[in-house]
Design goal:
By secondary structure, this protein is an alpha+beta fold. Helix content is 64%, strand content 15%.
């Protein structure tokens, strides 16, 4: 299924990016895609409605017009309606993720997923961004912060396949491994 969805997601995301580039609307489309992601994340009912094969395309299009029609660019709305018509709206989350990935690549931005016990301050954000820029050579950094009380303290930063574990839990785990290695 993963390969099948990638074969569907990528061409649609690339087509939307191409449309945005040819109309000088890439940043606006990016904002619209973020709005759509937030909309989907905030309503599991909406996700289920759009993904349901039992609900016809016209009903889905009507809901999309109502929820996004006044907010998103008309081209993005038409794109959503096309997805509904072609029974591809269930791939909307994947298409949004792929579009934002393409947008980050275009703007020289990397996504850094930061996991912390508490919300990070602006000063901490700048420090993390500087560290990620130094690690990757990226021009810009987009931070996605997740909270995890089990870290005890510190942060874990993930950029692509690279992980920097500066959490107290990670330090304790490494110490435990060293100590168990000494006893062997």
């Amino acid at each position: 299924m993963q390969g099948y969805s990638a074969a569907i997601v990528e061409p649609y995301a690339e087509a939307l990016m191409s449309l945005g580039q040819s109309n000088d609307q890439v940043q606006r489309f990016g904002e619209d895609i973020c709005f759509l992601q937030e909309l989907l994340a905030s309503s599991e009912d909406l996700q289920q409605f759009l993904e349901s094969p039992l609900i016809n395309a016209d009903a889905k299009k009507a809901v999309l017009r109502q929820l996004a029609g006044e907010t998103v660019h008309p081209y993005v709305l038409n794109f959503l309606l096309l997805l509904a018509e072609r029974r591809r709206i269930l791939f909307l989350q994947g298409i949004c993720q792929k579009f934002l990935e393409l947008l980050r690549k275009l703007s020289g931005t990397v996504l850094a997923e930061v996991t912390s016990v508490v919300e990070v301050s602006e000063e901490q954000r700048r420090t993390i961004e500087d560290r990620v820029k130094a690690m990757t050579g990226a021009q810009q950094v987009e931070l996605k912060v997740n909270l995890d009380p089990e870290l005890i303290g510190g942060v874990v930063i993930k950029v692509g396949s690279q992980v920097v574990d500066a959490s107290l839990r990670g330090q304790l785990r490494r110490l435990s491994l060293r100590l168990s290695g000494m006893n062997a």
